[in-house]
């Protein structure tokens, strides 16, 4: 698997005299690195993986005439099941990302599967244990969820798939909760962990983007998930109010060292701007649920009231 990942992600730089005319490249000095030209050979392994087809399709169904050369054929069903059992391994997560991101056919196959919990449960369990993961590992998991959540059928499916129990969730007993509700709970937990420990804006935005994609398709969100969503808004708004107050205090206070005052003021303004964006997205998520899915989500209304 590691060899495969190296093969599909390796990009060889084209040397300048090979195919790029020198006069089209900006040369800052005589020692300019070839990589500055940002031109790479096409990676045949990556191309093969991205064009791989499901073995169960009839050859005539696939646009065989549009393909140049032979097409790699895999059993998507076996691959899906194998990935579901191995996702605790970081290299398996990277392979899943490569397939979902690069291979449209595999992505479509994943989206039409009715047992999405096979892939999503290991991903959510890893996000639940985010404190044991590096930020790179968390990014990869979130980007996979973000790509999948861009599809409306995926968002509808996760809310209709009911899980009998979630053994790894420690804070609370989860019986007969939907996969969608569990996703909301775990993503909000990841946001809160990120705010207290990693403080990574990009990671935070990814979590909120997934929730925003899911919002209009929410279906019978559980009482616990609804309460966590409203408590997230409450927590962000308190933090925002605190920062706004701090900014006003700093503006009023005259500090002898003007330079230091400006730096502190800039830091507060940046953080305030970030929290303004976070609050706006959370309001958009709640608004999307109330606008498009109100009759199906009485628990969300109850939590807000």
From TrEMBL:
This is Dymeclin. Pfam families: Dymeclin. GO terms for cellular component: Golgi apparatus. One of its GO terms (biological process) is Golgi organization. Residues 1-15 form the signal peptide. Belongs to the dymeclin family. InterPro entries: Dymeclin. Keywords: Lipoprotein, Myristate, Signal.
């Amino acid at each position: 698997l590691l060899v495969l990942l190296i093969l599909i992600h390796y990009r060889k730089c084209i040397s300048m005299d090979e195919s790029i005319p020198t006069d089209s490249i900006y040369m800052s000095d005589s020692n300019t690195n070839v990589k500055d030209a940002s031109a790479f050979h096409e990676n045949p392994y990556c191309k093969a993986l991205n064009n791989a087809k499901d073995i169960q399709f009839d050859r005539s169904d696939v646009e065989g005439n549009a393909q140049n050369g032979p097409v790699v054929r895999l059993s998507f069903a076996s691959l899906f099941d194998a990935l579901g059992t191995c996702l605790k391994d970081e290299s398996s997560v990277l392979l899943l990302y490569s397939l979902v991101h690069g291979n449209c056919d595999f992505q479509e196959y994943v989206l039409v599967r009715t047992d999405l919990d096979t892939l999503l449960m290991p991903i959510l369990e890893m996000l639940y244990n985010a404190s044991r993961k590096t930020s790179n590992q968390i990014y990869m998991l979130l980007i996979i969820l973000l790509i999948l959540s861009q599809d409306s059928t995926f968002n509808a499916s996760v809310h209709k798939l009911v899980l009998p129990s979630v053994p790894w969730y420690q804070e609370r007993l989860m019986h007969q909760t939907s996969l969608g509700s569990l996703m909301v709970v775990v993503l909000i937990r990841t946001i809160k962990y990120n705010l207290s420990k990693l403080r990574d804006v990009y990671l935070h935005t990814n979590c909120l983007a997934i929730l925003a994609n899911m919002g209009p398709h929410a279906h019978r969100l559980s009482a616990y998930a609804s309460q966590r969503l409203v408590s997230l808004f409450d927590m962000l708004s308190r933090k925002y109010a605190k920062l706004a107050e701090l900014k006003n205090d700093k503006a009023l206070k005259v500090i002898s060292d003007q330079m230091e005052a400006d730096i502190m003021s800039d830091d507060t303004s940046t953080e305030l701007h970030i929290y303004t964006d976070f609050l706006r997205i959370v309001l958009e998520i709640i608004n999307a649920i109330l606008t498009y899915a109100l009759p199906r989500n009485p628990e969300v209304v109850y939590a807000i009231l």
